[in-house]
């Protein structure tokens, strides 16, 4: 009788046990780590670019040459209002193209994905290679080993190319996840949102995009377009080359490739069970968190400049930054999306939960602190017209 009661209780609360599965815990932890790392990587790149520009300015003044007027970091793309509005529309067009014409262009998609993922993975691995080179005492001779690229950067590129090559040959999910992680960090670090207005427009548009293509596309296209495109494997380019060279009998067919448009986390407790999280569910909220981290750093630097010293100890409430608030909101949103997927037993548009849980607390906190107007339009411009980039954040 006790055993029957325990089984009934398990069935009743099965969804609660499911959300503690290793695959879902891994998805939550890794996605948050990627956002935190990508945001701090972006902040560090901004500081390094500013220091480099300052050294070039000083060298130009000492040498009697004109001061360069180029942007401190040419690799960074800042989205404007029009781009934020058009991004969901462009994503919808790309999704439809992949849905209708994937069979005829899958080899091209796989090749382009491999090239882009290789560059992103090299970006992710570069700090690791720089650390190894510094630990081995190669830091002094690691600059300009091949043109404008240093030895650690070249090593990271070769390591990334090797990982992508093994992925093409094996199609292993772990290598696909590594490539997806590189894409997440690269996009968060190299794409910036200039204001809370642009952030709100982008995330609201993507929320509507996600909800439509997950919940309502099946009524028009008789299938869930988002899930269909995300889970459809692509033809391995190695098989295409083998057929062209008529090597079909001489080599075994390479496996089809699951494209790194999502992160896959297999369960340790249930064989064949896995959790899947789209890269957009990490990158898009990550862009918002990267923006608020930059604003936190800018606000702190502005306060230091005004006071002439580092602020003293603060209360617990004042230590809660916008980044902390948004990161907590992201965790709660991801938890809510996971619970909803378990309760309804259907794919959920994660942005439906992530956007409100990250954006609404941020807007509320900014309003309470009196920063909402500045963050909405010109967050990095001081009252005297000086750009926030001139401060050491």
From TrEMBL:
Please tell me one Gene Ontology term that the record gives under cellular component: Golgi-associated vesicle membrane
Q: Where in the cell is it found?
A: Endomembrane system
Question: Keyword Transmembrane on this protein?
Answer: yes
Cross-referenced Pfam families = Peptidase_A22B (PF04258)
Q: Where are the transmembrane segments?
A: 15-40, 84-102, 108-128, 149-168, 174-193, 200-221, 274-293, 322-344, 350-368
GO:BP terms for this protein?
Answer: membrane protein proteolysis; signal peptide processing
Q: Which UniProt keywords apply?
A: Hydrolase, Membrane, Transmembrane, Transmembrane helix
Q: Which family does it belong to?
A: Belongs to the peptidase A22B family.
Q: What is this protein called?
A: Signal peptide peptidase-like 3
Species for this entry: Parnassius mnemosyne
């Amino acid at each position: 009788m006790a055993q029957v009661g325990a089984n009934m209780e398990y069935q009743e609360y099965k969804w609660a046990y499911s959300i503690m599965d290793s695959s879902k815990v891994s998805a939550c932890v890794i996605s948050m780590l990627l956002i935190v790392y990508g945001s701090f990587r972006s902040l560090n790149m901004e500081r390094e670019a500013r220091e480099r520009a300052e050294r070039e300015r000083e060298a130009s003044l000492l040498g009697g040459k004109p001061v360069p007027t180029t942007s401190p970091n040419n690799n960074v793309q800042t989205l404007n209002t029009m781009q934020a509005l058009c991004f969901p529309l462009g994503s919808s067009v790309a999704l439809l193209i992949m849905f209708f014409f994937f069979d005829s262009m899958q080899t091209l998609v796989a090749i382009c994905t491999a090239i882009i993922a290789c560059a992103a993975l090299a970006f992710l691995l570069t700090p690791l290679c720089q650390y190894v080179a510094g630990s081995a005492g190669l830091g002094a001779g690691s600059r300009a080993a091949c043109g404008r690229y240093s030895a650690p950067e070249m090593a990271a590129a070769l390591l990334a190319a090797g990982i992508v090559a093994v992925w093409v040959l094996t199609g292993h999910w772990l290598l696909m996840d590594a490539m997806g992680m590189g894409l997440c960090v690269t996009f968060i670090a190299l794409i910036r949102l200039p204001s809370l207005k642009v952030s709100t427009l982008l995330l609201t548009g993507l929320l509507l995009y996600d909800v439509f293509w997950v919940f309502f596309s099946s009524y028009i296209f008789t299938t869930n377009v988002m899930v269909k495109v995300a889970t459809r494997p692509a033809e391995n380019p190695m098989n295409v080359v083998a057929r062209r060279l008529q090597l079909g009998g001489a080599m075994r067919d390479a496996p089809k490739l699951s494209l790194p448009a999502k992160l896959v986390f297999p369960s340790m407790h249930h064989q064949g069970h896995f959790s899947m999280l789209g890269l957009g569910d990490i990158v898009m909220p990550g862009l918002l968190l990267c923006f608020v981290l930059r604003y936190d750093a800018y606000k702190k630097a502005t306060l230091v400049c005004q006071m002439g010293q580092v602020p003293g100890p603060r209360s617990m409430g004042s230590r809660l930054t916008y980044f902390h608030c948004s990161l907590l909101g992201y965790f709660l949103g991801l938890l809510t999306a996971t619970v909803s997927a378990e309760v309804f037993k259907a794919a959920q548009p994660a942005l439906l939960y992530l956007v409100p849980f990250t954006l609404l607390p941020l807007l509320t906190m900014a309003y309470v602190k009196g920063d909402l107007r500045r963050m909405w339009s010109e967050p990095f411009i001081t009252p005297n017209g000086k750009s926030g980039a001139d401060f050491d954040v």
